[in-house]
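In the current project phase, work has continued on tokenised descriptions of protein folds. One protein thus recorded appears below exactly as we store it.

——
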Amino acid sequence: MKIQKIKKYSFYSNGSPRPVRDIPFVAEPDIHGDERGYFFENYKDGTLGYGFENMSWCKQINMSSSSRFVFRGLHAQAAPKTQGKLIECVEGRIVDIIIDARPDSASFNHFSIFSLDGKNHKQLWVPRGFLHGFCSVEDKCVIMYKCDCTYSKDVEFSVNPASFFKLINNDVTRKELSFIKSSIEELTISKNLSQKDAEGMDYVEFMELIKDKWNKEHKLWYSSHMLKIV
């Protein structure tokens, strides 16, 4: 299994390196196929690095199915139930978006876009402290999430993705998403969003809120698996 780390997310704001589970990465399995079908190792102890030595890190596994152009997100959970996720597209194809919402991070407010599909079975690790969402780009998309913390409605954040796309509508993202739809705005029309996400917080307001708390009180909204909750 090949691991591709996203280097720009690798450091705290003071320049010190982050541990493996605090860094996004993409894991690509070795798929063995012939005329009968295929086989691959979906998960194996120790192959993902430090913090993934055995399956004890996984506390909940979710499955979702989405029709074409449905957008789910942007979501995150706050301390003490901050959640890291290993995302895999089992069937279909999705465009996955992660945003670093850790105010102590050198890449705070940076985002990355990934394409995941049911043919290559790549898995994306979304660390704690990231906003996460995806758009399904085929008629049926089945997604599996392996989570390092159980779901908790009481500490869940929902950020309206339209408020995020609005900021980057004329940026590189339009080019990266052009194969999905001609207009980013169409990804976030009401029929493609849940009521919860449509009524979610404004992106700028959310980021300013958590940044302000960090600057004034030196408190983080998220809890790293390597750090004490504050």
Summary: Confidence is low (pLDDT under 50) at residues 179-183, 226-230. DSSP finds four helices and 13 strands in the chain.
